[in-house]
TrEMBL record, chain A:
Sorted UniProt keywords: Cell membrane, Membrane, Transmembrane, Transmembrane helix, Transport
Major site of localization recorded for this protein: membrane
This protein's name: Carbohydrate ABC transporter permease
UniProt feature, compositional bias: Low complexity: 1-25
Species the sequence originates in: Streptomyces parvulus
Transmembrane segments: 39-58, 105-125, 137-159, 165-185, 213-237, 269-291
Stated family: Belongs to the binding-protein-dependent transport system permease family.
Subcellular location: Cell membrane
Residue intervals of the ABC transmembrane type-1 domain: 101-290
UniProt membrane topology term: Multi-pass membrane protein
Entry-linked Pfam families: BPD_transp_1
Annotated region (Disordered), positions in chain: 1-30
Lineage: Bacteria, Bacillati, Actinomycetota, Actinomycetes, Kitasatosporales
TrEMBL record, chain B:
InterPro entries in the cross-refs: ABC_transporter_permease, MetI-like, MetI-like_sf
Name of the molecule in the record: ABC transporter permease
PANTHER family xref list: ABC TRANSPORTER PERMEASE PROTEIN, INNER MEMBRANE ABC TRANSPORTER PERMEASE PROTEIN YCJO
GO biological process, one term: transmembrane transport
Pfam families the record matches: BPD_transp_1
Organism: Streptomyces parvulus
Family statement: Belongs to the binding-protein-dependent transport system permease family.
Record keywords: Cell membrane, Membrane, Transmembrane, Transmembrane helix, Transport
UniProtKB/TrEMBL annotation, chain C:
Region described as Disordered: 405-426
Gene3D superfamilies from the UniProt entry: Periplasmic binding protein-like II (3.40.190.10)
PROSITE patterns recorded: PROKAR_LIPOPROTEIN
PANTHER family, sorted: ARABINOSE-BINDING PROTEIN-RELATED, SUGAR BINDING SECRETED PROTEIN
Cross-referenced InterPro entries: Bact_solute-bd_prot1, SBP
Keywords attached to this entry: Signal
Protein name: Extracellular solute-binding protein
Compositionally biased tracts (Basic and acidic residues): 406-426
Signal peptide: 1-31
Stored SUPFAM superfamilies: Periplasmic binding protein-like II
Biological source species: Streptomyces parvulus
Entries under Pfam families matching the protein: SBP_bac_8
Length: 305, 317, 426
C-alpha cells in the first residue's frame, strides 16, 4: 500500500509507457512475417477452444436428458438427448428464474450506468478542474483501489439491515453505485483524451461545468466508458457472496436462483444444468452479437488507462 | 485494433454553441462532482472496514448484537486455531495453483493468437467464452465434472490408465485444491490471454524486425522482445488476480455439496473467506469472523506489497 | 443539434430513473390488483405441491409460491432474515433439530395460538405438540408437520443373494440391537463382497443418536458430547463398522448418494418414514419392488420432522397462519403420507385412521408402511436438542467422513470430533 503518487499503481495503462510516444495506430503487420500461423498453431488453438467450450456443451447435454440416470451410467453423457426444451421450461416453472433474471438485469444495469456517470464526473473533476485538496484526494482514490472492501462484509450487512435495505435490490445497488477503479480509470481517460484547450474552448463559449461535462467530456471518453460499463455489468451479474447474504432466495439474482436449483435433498441435475444453460444463454447471446466490440473492449481495457 | 477504436472516439466535441455569458467556475462544483464517490466509499467501504475492527474487539453475536469488550481475545483465539492456519495455507495454495499456471497458459494462448490467423476475431471470441459463464455456474458444472463416481475427469483419467481407482476430488488437500484452481483457471485464462494479446500488439514492429535481422527464432524473439515489453501488463494481471484470488468464495463454497462452508471434513479446502462466512453467517460469531476479516486483509496487503516490489523491480530492470 | 442532444439527455435520465424506480419496488411482491402472494419455504420436497394447488383453487385471490433450499442454508438464512426483520417467507419450515436455535428469538414469530392453534392441541402427538410450543404455555411457535419414525429399508434381492432371510418380519428379528445389525453386516459382506452394508456412517450415527433422549446436550442446554457415554458408544460403533468396510461411503443427499441408491450399492439404509420418498425418487422406476422395510435395531426412534412457523415480519400473518394450518391439517397429512413423499403424520387421528394404518407401499414390495411407521409413532418420545445442536452435529459428521475416506481410525476420528466440536461451540 506504499503508494505516494497516482501513477504508481500498475493500472492497465502501464502499457501507456509504450503507447504515449507512438502514434495511435496499431503497427500494421505485413505478410511474410515470422508469426504466420501454421497447422500446429491452429491445432493448439482448436484444442484450447474445445476446452473452453466443452463444459458448456456438457451442460447442454445433461440438460437435454430426462433424469439423473444420465449421470450415473458407466460412461459420462456426451450426446444430447431430446428433453432440452422441456427442461428449460421446467426451470422457469419451478423457480423464480424470470424474476431473478430481471433482478440481475436491474442491478447490473443500474450499477453500470451509475458507475459510468459518477466515475466520469469525478474523473473530470480530478483531471481538469483546479480545487483545493485535489491531489491528496486523488491519492485517496488510488489507495482505495487496492482496498478489498469485501472484507467489511459483516458490518456492511448490519448497516444495510439497519437502513432497512435487507432483501431489497437497493442493498446490492447502493454500495456499488461508484467504485474507486472506475474513478481512477475515467480520470486517466479524461486526461488522455480531452485536451485542456477543448475544455477551455467550451468554457469560453459560455458552457457551464455540467454542460462541458456532458458535451465535451462524455463524448470524448465513450470507449473507456463502454469498457467500464461492461466490466461493472459483468461484475454485478456474477457476484455471489454479497447477494447470498443480502437477499432472500426468492428475490435473488440469477446466481442465487441457480444455486437454489442445486438445493434440496434430491437434486435434479438435468434441471440444475438447464438452469446453468438459461443463466449463460442471455449473456452469451448478447456477447455473441457484440463479440467484436467486447474483445476489443477487453483489449482496450488492457492498453488504455 | 483496440487503439484504432479508441482513436476514433476523440471526435472534435467543440460544437459551435451560441456564446453566452461566462458563468464562472463555482468553487463548490468540483467537490460535488467527486462527492458521490467519497460518500459511497465512506459509508459502504471504509466505515464497514473500520467497524470490522471494532466488532472484532467484542464478543459479538450477529443476531443478538454487541456483547462485552474482549480486547484482542478474538485474535488470540485465531492464532491458536489450527483451522486458521489451514485456511491461510489453503488460500495461498489455491491462489498460487490457480494464478501461476493460468497466467502462463494465458501467455501461451496470447502468443498463439498474436499471428496471422484466419477468422481471427472468431478465435478471440471463442477464447473469451468461459468469461461469460458465471462463477456459480462454473462451480456447479465443475463439481459434477470432478465427481468421484461419475465425473468425467475420473472417467478420462481411468480410461487413459493414469489412475487406478477413482479420485475423490473433495477428499484430499491436493486434489481439492487442483479442482478448485482448475475452475478459476478455466474461467480466467482466455480473458488474461486477450489482455496479453493487446499488450503484445502494442509492441513496436521495428523491435521484432531488428530481432529478425539478428536471426532470432520465434521463441527467442518471444523471450527477448515480447516478454520484456509486456512485463508491466503481466504485473497488472498478477495484481488483479491477487485481489480476486485471495478472496475466493463461490468455488470452494459450492464444491462442497453440504453447503455449510466447512470446506471438507478436514477443512482441506476452506479458504479464509469461507471461514469468515462460516463464523459470521452460520455460527453467528461476528466478533471472531471480524478477526478473520482483518487477518485476511493483512494477508492481502502483504501479498500486494510483494507485488509492488516486483513491479518496481520490473520497472528498473 | 441542440434539441437532439437535449432529447438524448432526457432519454438517458429517464432510463436511469426508470431503472432506479424498478429497483425501488423490486422487492415488494404484492401486486396492485389485490392478489396476495404467500411464500412457503422448506428444505426438501414436503409433498405440498398438490395441496398448494388445492388451496389456490379454494382461495381465489391467493397465490402460493414454494421455495426449496438446501437444509443448512435454509436454516442459516432464516436466522439472517429473522435478525434483519425482513426477507423471510410467510410460512417457514423449521426442522426439529434447528428449532431450539430459534428459541431465543421466539418473539419474532407469530404466536399461532392467536390464530386458533390451541384448538388443535388434542389432535397432535403429545410430545410433538410440546416441541412446537417450546414448553411455553399459551405460545405456539409452529404446527408440527411430520415425525420421523425409524425403520430400516433393505434390498430384498441382495439379501437373497447373501442367503439372508428376506421376509420383513424375519429380517427385523436379525437385529434386535445395533451390534446384531453390524454382525449381520459382516455376514452379508462375507457373501456379497462387492456391495456395502449401509450407505453412510453419518446416517447410522444420526439414527442411533435419535434413539436416545439426550445426545449432545443435557436438559440444561450444556454441551455433553464429550462426557455422554452414549455419544461415544454410537460414534465408535458406526466408525468401527465403517473401518470394517461396511459403509458405501456415500455422503448423504449428495449426487453420489442418490446414484448409489439407484445402483443398489448397499443392502440397507436407515429409514425414517420420509426417507422412503427419497429412496423412491432416487432409485426411480427400476428400483420398484427391490426394496422392503423392516424394524430398526434398538427399538423405535424419531429422526426429523418439522414445524411450520409464521415469522412476525410476514405482512399477511393471518393468511399465512391459515395456510400453515391447512398444510398440517389431518387431511393434508394423510394425503402426504399416502402420496409419493410418505412423511409420517404427527396427528393422532390420522395415525389411527384405518386407511392410514392399512397403507402399503407398492414401491417397497407392498410393505405395510401404515403399520410399520404409524403404529410405532405413538410410542416415540422427543430427543432433547440443544440450542447449538447443529454446531455440534457438524464436527462429528466430519470426523465420521474421515473414517470413510480412510484418513483416520475410529479413535483418531473421535479425538478429532471432540476437538473440533469444542472449537465450533465456543
Amino acid at each position: 500500500m506504499a503508494v505516494t503518487t497516482p501513477p504508481r499503481v500498475p493500472a492497465p495503462g502501464r502499457g501507456a509507457a509504450v503507447r504515449r510516444g507512438v502514434p495511435r495506430t496499431v503497427p500494421k503487420r505485413g505478410p511474410g512475417r515470422l508469426d504466420k500461423a501454421g497447422p500446429v498453431a491452429y491445432a493448439l488453438l482448436a484444442a484450447i477452444t474445445a476446452a473452453s467450450v466443452f463444459p458448456l456443451y456438457w451442460s447442454v447435454v445433461v440438460a437435454s436428458h430426462d433424469d439423473n440416470s444420465v449421470l450415473a451410467g458407466s460412461t459420462p453423457p456426451l450426446v444430447p438427448g431430446g428433453h432440452l426444451v422441456e427442461n428449460l421450461q421446467r426451470v422457469f416453472e419451478l423457480s423464480a428464474f424470470w424474476q431473478a433474471l430481471g433482478n440481475s438485469f436491474v442491478v447490473a444495469g443500474t450499477t453500470a450506468v451509475s458507475n459510468v456517470l459518477l466515475s466520469s464526473l469525478a474523473g473530470f473533476a480530478f483531471a481538469k478542474l483546479r480545487f483545493r485538496g485535489r491531489n491528496p484526494l486523488l491519492v485517496c482514490v488510488v489507495v482505495t483501489v487496492m482496498v478489498p472492501t469485501q472484507l467489511g462484509i459483516i458490518p456492511l450487512y448490519m448497516l444495510v439491515t439497519d437502513m432497512g435495505l435487507y432483501g431489497k435490490l437497493s442493498a446490492l445497488i447502493v454500495p456499488a453505485l461508484v467504485s474507486a477503479v472506475g474513478v481512477f480509470w475515467m480520470r486517466q481517460a479524461v486526461e488522455e483524451n480531452i485536451p485542456d484547450e477543448l475544455v477551455e474552448a467550451a468554457r469560453m463559449d459560455g458552457a457551464g461545468l455540467l454542460r462541458t461535462y456532458w458535451h465535451v467530456v462524455v463524448p470524448g471518453v465513450r470507449t473507456t466508458a463502454a469498457v467500464l460499463a461492461m466490466f461493472t455489468f459483468m461484475f454485478a451479474w456474477n457476484d455471489y457472496f454479497w447477494p447470498l447474504i443480502a437477499l432472500p432466495p426468492e428475490n435473488g439474482t440469477v446466481q442465487i436462483a441457480l444455486n437454489q436449483l442445486a438445493a434440496g435433498y434430491y437434486t435434479d441435475y438435468t434441471l440444475m444444468l438447464a438452469g446453468v444453460v438459461v443463466s449463460v444463454l442471455p449473456v452469451l447471446a448478447a456477447f455473441t452479437l457484440l463479440a467484436r466490440r467486447i474483445v476489443s473492449g477487453v483489449m482496450a481495457g488492457a492498453v488504455k488507462g | 485494433m483496440a487503439l484504432q477504436a479508441a482513436s476514433t472516439t476523440t471526435d472534435p466535441p467543440a460544437r459551435a454553441t451560441t456564446p453566452r455569458r461566462f458563468r464562472g467556475e463555482r468553487h463548490l462544483l468540483p467537490y460535488l462532482f467527486i462527492a458521490p464517490f467519497f460518500l459511497v466509499f465512506g459509508v459502504f467501504g471504509l466505515y464497514p472496514l473500520l467497524q470490522t475492527f471494532w466488532v472484532s474487539l467484542h464478543d459479538w453475536d450477529r443476531l443478538a448484537g454487541a456483547g462485552e469488550w474482549v480486547g484482542l481475545e478474538n485474535f488470540g483465539r485465531l492464532l491458536e486455531d489450527s483451522d486458521f492456519y489451514t485456511a491461510t495455507f489453503n488460500t495461498l495454495s489455491i491462489f498460487v495453483l490457480s494464478t501461476a499456471p493460468q497466467l502462463l497458459a494465458a501467455l501461451g494462448v496470447a502468443w498463439l493468437l498474436d499471428r496471422h490467423l484466419r477468422a481471427q476475431s472468431v478465435w478471440r471470441a471463442l477464447v473469451l467464452v468461459p468469461q461469460y459463464v458465471s462463477v456459480v455456474a462454473v462451480a456447479l458444472v465443475f463439481s459434477q465434472l470432478f465427481g468421484r463416481d461419475f465425473g468425467i475427469v475420473n472417467w478420462v483419467l481411468e480410461g487413459t490408465g493414469l489412475i487406478g481407482d477413482p479420485v475423490d476430488w473433495t477428499a484430499d488437500t491436493w486434489s481439492s485444491h487442483l479442482a478448485i484452481s482448475f475452475m478459476v483457471m478455466w474461467r480466467w485464462t482466455g480473458y488474461n490471454a486477450l489482455i496479453y494479446l493487446a499488450a503484445m500488439q502494442a509492441v513496436p514492429r521495428d523491435q521484432y524486425e531488428s530481432a529478425q535481422i539478428d536471426g532470432a527464432g520465434r521463441l527467442l524473439t518471444f523471450r527477448k522482445v515480447t516478454l520484456p515489453a509486456i512485463r508491466p501488463t503481466i504485473v497488472f494481471t498478477v495484481v488483479i488476480s491477487t485481489i480476486g484470488g485471495l478472496q475466493l468464495f463461490a468455488e470452494p463454497f459450492l464444491f462442497d455439496q453440504q453447503g455449510n462452508a466447512e470446506g471438507g471434513a478436514e477443512h482441506q479446502f476452506q479458504t479464509l473467506t469461507l471461514m469468515l462466512y462460516k463464523y459470521g453467517f452460520i455460527n453467528n460469531d461476528a466478533g471472531y469472523a471480524s478477526a478473520v476479516s482483518w487477518v485476511l486483509f493483512l494477508v492481502i496487503a502483504v501479498v500486494a506489497a510483494v507485488n509492488f516490489l516486483l513491479a518496481r523491480r520490473s520497472e528498473r530492470g | 443539434m441542440g434539441p437532439t442532444r437535449a432529447r438524448r439527455t432526457a432519454a438517458a435520465l429517464a432510463a436511469a430513473t426508470a431503472l432506479l424506480a424498478l429497483c425501488a419496488c423490486g422487492s415488494g411482491s404484492d401486486a396492485a390488483d389485490g392478489r396476495l402472494t404467500l411464500t412457503v419455504a422448506t428444505f426438501s420436497d414436503f409433498g405440498y405441491k398438490p395441496l398448494i394447488e388445492e388451496y389456490e383453487r379454494t382461495h381465489p385471490g391467493i397465490d402460493v409460491k414454494e421455495r426449496i433450499s438446501q437444509f443448512d442454508q435454509h436454516h442459516n438464512q432464516l436466522s439472517t432474515q429473522i435478525a434483519s426483520g425482513s426477507g423471510a417467507a410467510d410460512v417457514v419450515a423449521i426442522e426439529e433439530g434447528y428449532l431450539p436455535k430459534f428459541r431465543a428469538v421466539k418473539d419474532k414469530f407469530t404466536n399461532l395460538a392467536d390464530h386458533g392453534a390451541l384448538d388443535r392441541e388434542d389432535e397432535y402427538l403429545d410430545w410433538k405438540w410440546e416441541q412446537g410450543t417450546l414448553g411455553t404455555p399459551g405460545f405456539v411457535m409452529g404446527y408440527g408437520t411430520d415425525v420421523g419414525s425409524l425403520a430400516i429399508c433393505y434390498r430384498k434381492d441382495l439379501f437373497e443373494k447373501a442367503g439372508l432371510p428376506t421376509d420383513r418380519a424375519e429380517v427385523g428379528k436379525l437385529w434386535p440391537t445395533w451390534d446384531a445389525y453390524f454382525a449381520t453386516g459382516e455376514r452379508f459382506r462375507s457373501r456379497v463382497g462387492d456391495k456395502a452394508w449401509f450407505d453412510s456412517s453419518g446416517n447410522i450415527f444420526t439414527a442411533m443418536m435419535n434413539q436416545t433422549e439426550y445426545g449432545f446436550f443435557d436438559a440444561r442446554d450444556q454441551y455433553v458430547g464429550d462426557t455422554n457415554p452414549k455419544v461415544r458408544e454410537f460414534f465408535m460403533a458406526s466408525a468401527q463398522a465403517t473401518a470394517d468396510e461396511q459403509s458405501a461411503n456415500l455422503q448423504p443427499f449428495s449426487q453420489q448418494w442418490n446414484a448409489g441408491i439407484k445402483q443398489g450399492r448397499m443392502a440397507t439404509m436407515t429409514c425414517p418414514a420420509w426417507m422412503t420418498g427419497q429412496i423412491a425418487t432416487a432409485a426411480g422406476d427400476a428400483g420398484a419392488g427391490k426394496w422392503d422395510i423392516a424394524a430398526v435395531p434398538g427399538g423405535g426412534g424419531n429422526w426429523g420432522g418439522s414445524f411450520l412457523t409464521v415469522p412476525k415480519q410476514s405482512k399477511h400473518a393471518k393468511e399465512a397462519a391459515e395456510l400453515a394450518d391447512f398444510l398440517t391439517s389431518a387431511a393434508a397429512q394423510k394425503k402426504i403420507f399416502t402420496g409419493p413423499v410418505g412423511a409420517l403424520p404427527s396427528l393422532v387421528p390420522v395415525l389411527e385412521d384405518p386407511e392410514v394404518r392399512g397403507t402399503t407401499s407398492e414401491y417397497f414390495n407392498d410393505a405395510p408402511t401404515g403399520q410399520l411407521f404409524a403404529s410405532s409413532a405413538r410410542g416415540l418420545g422427543p430427543n432433547y436438542r440443544g440450542t447449538k445442536d447443529q454446531q455440534a452435529r457438524i464436527p462429528f459428521g466430519n470426523a465420521l467422513q474421515l473414517v470413510e475416506q480412510g484418513k483416520a481410525d475410529p479413535e483418531e476420528a473421535w479425538d478429532k470430533a471432540l476437538d473440533e466440536a469444542d472449537k465450533n461451540l465456543r
